[in-house]
């Protein structure tokens, strides 16, 4: 089966909005309100046409013509699998629509049934359909242990009209967001959080660097990282994903969409999308794992609502740093490991996107932290993240910051660019 055309993010069709990440969902599909940014034109027409037209000419045909192993389902099959989309098997409800648990016949053994999650498109019109098509295109051709597997899809007609559904592998341990919530009865242990950080970095590395084309995830957040029965973390919800820029171009220009608190500042300002936008989001996610807090939380005092602004004063002092650690963890035991992870997060959150590391470099560092955390041997030194184009003096300073894990060394975080305040409506 050939995939549908991969949506390239045409300006006239895609809304200029970011989602509010101020509330946690009780399900793995986070229901969030759209937050409209003022101004509909976030990038110049010339820059837009230069990048997207080239993308359409080169990358789209090769992607849409790749073979896919997705199974095509009918509405009756999915009604049978989900007890006629009964609320008794509903796993959650998000911006896309409702998600149900179901059972389908195994492709390997027809006598065996396997658990799946069935996502049904809600009445969101054209935009929801575009995200549905994007998921089919992306997950129909990519496969990795740290990406949620798309089993199949349905585009069928019944008495209610066109039905658009996606069928995924079932992830019984829900989302990382769910387990970081204060309502969670079983908070994630530190070792499990490190494993999740590794898995997420591995999934992004695959998308950015390990294929003959690049995919920018564009909506990395804790609610989009799901956990299987063995607590392996997998990236999910590729409705906002985009192909990376073709050779010769530095970025893809798109309207700004995403989730408040996670979006990279340069992307919010200009609409210029690169893989380094995902790196920024990953840095925010690391602070989520460290603190157990949301990136943006209206339920907290005003001075604590924005995670990155709240943690900043605590990073320059070792004694203060432990105050930002998730109180559900053994702070003394994880202190050094958490401090090292914060240094990696800070590197992902550098103002200049070109100075941020690639995800493969981030993965290497997180792997070192996870290994040293489990080992009784002295902690491994972190590698130097300095840019190859940086001066020798800058390289030396950066190397000292990464390898010397004293708390006083983290004060360079204050140079992180502060994004403009985003007003929610």
Automatic annotation (TrEMBL):
Q: Name one GO cellular component term.
A: plasma membrane
Q: Which InterPro entries match?
A: Kinase-like_dom_sf, Plant_Ser_Thr_Prot_Kinase, Prot_kinase_dom, Protein_kinase_ATP_BS
User: Basic and acidic residues bias: where?
Assistant: 7-16, 33-48
Where are the compositionally biased (Low complexity) regions? 17-30
Q: Is this entry keyworded Cell membrane?
A: yes
Tell me if Nucleus is a UniProt keyword of this record: no
User: What name does this protein carry?
Assistant: non-specific serine/threonine protein kinase
The top of its lineage is: Eukaryota, Viridiplantae, Streptophyta, Embryophyta, Tracheophyta
């Amino acid at each position: 089966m050939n995939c549908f055309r991969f949506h390239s993010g045409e300006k006239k069709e895609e809304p200029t909005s970011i989602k509010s990440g101020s509330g946690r969902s009780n399900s793995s599909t986070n229901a969030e309100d759209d937050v409209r940014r003022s101004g509909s034109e976030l990038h110049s027409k010339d820059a837009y046409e230069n990048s997207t037209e080239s993308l359409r000419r080169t990358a789209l045909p090769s992607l849409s013509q790749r073979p896919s192993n997705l199974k095509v389902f009918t509405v009756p099959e999915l009604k049978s699998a989900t007890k006629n989309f009964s609320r008794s098997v509903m796993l959650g409800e998000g911006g896309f629509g409702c998600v149900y648990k179901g059972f389908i016949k195994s492709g390997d053994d027809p006598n065996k049934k396997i658990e799946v999650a069935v996502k049904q498109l809600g009445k969101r019109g054209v935009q929801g359909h575009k995200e549905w098509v994007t998921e089919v295109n992306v997950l129909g051709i990519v496969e990795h242990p740290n990406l949620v597997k798309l089993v199949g899809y349905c585009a069928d007609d019944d008495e209610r009209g066109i039905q658009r559904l996606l069928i995924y592998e079932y992830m019984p341990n829900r989302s990382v967001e769910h387990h970081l919530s204060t309502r969670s009865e079983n908070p994630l242990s530190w070792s499990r959080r490190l494993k999740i950080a590794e898995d997420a970095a591995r999934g992004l590395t695959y998308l950015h660097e390990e294929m003959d084309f690049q995919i920018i995830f564009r909506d990395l957040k804790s609610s989009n990282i799901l956990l299987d029965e063995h607590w392996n973390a997998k990236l999910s919800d590729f409705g906002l994903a985009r192909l990376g820029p073709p050779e010769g171009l530095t970025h893809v220009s798109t309207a700004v969409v995403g989730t408040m608190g996670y979006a990279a500042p340069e992307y919010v300002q200009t609409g210029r999308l690169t893989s380094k936008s995902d790196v920024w989001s990953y840095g925010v996610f690391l602070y989520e794992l460290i603190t157990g807090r949301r990136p943006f939380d209206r339920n907290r005092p005003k001075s604590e609502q924005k995670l990155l602004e709240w943690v900043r004063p605590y990073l320059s002092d070792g004694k203060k740093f432990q105050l930002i650690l998730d109180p559900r963890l053994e702070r003394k035991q994880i202190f050094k490991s958490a401090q090292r992870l914060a240094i990696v997060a800070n590197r992902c959150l550098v103002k200049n996107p070109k100075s941020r590391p690639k995800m493969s470099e981030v993965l290497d560092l997180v792997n070192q932290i996870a290994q040293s955390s489990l080992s009784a041997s002295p902690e491994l030194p972190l590698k130097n993240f300095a840019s190859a184009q940086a001066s020798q003096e800058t390289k030396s300073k950066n190397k000292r910051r990464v390898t010397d894990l004293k708390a006083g060394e983290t004060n360079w975080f204050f140079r992180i660019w502060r994004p403009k305040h985003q007003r929610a409506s």
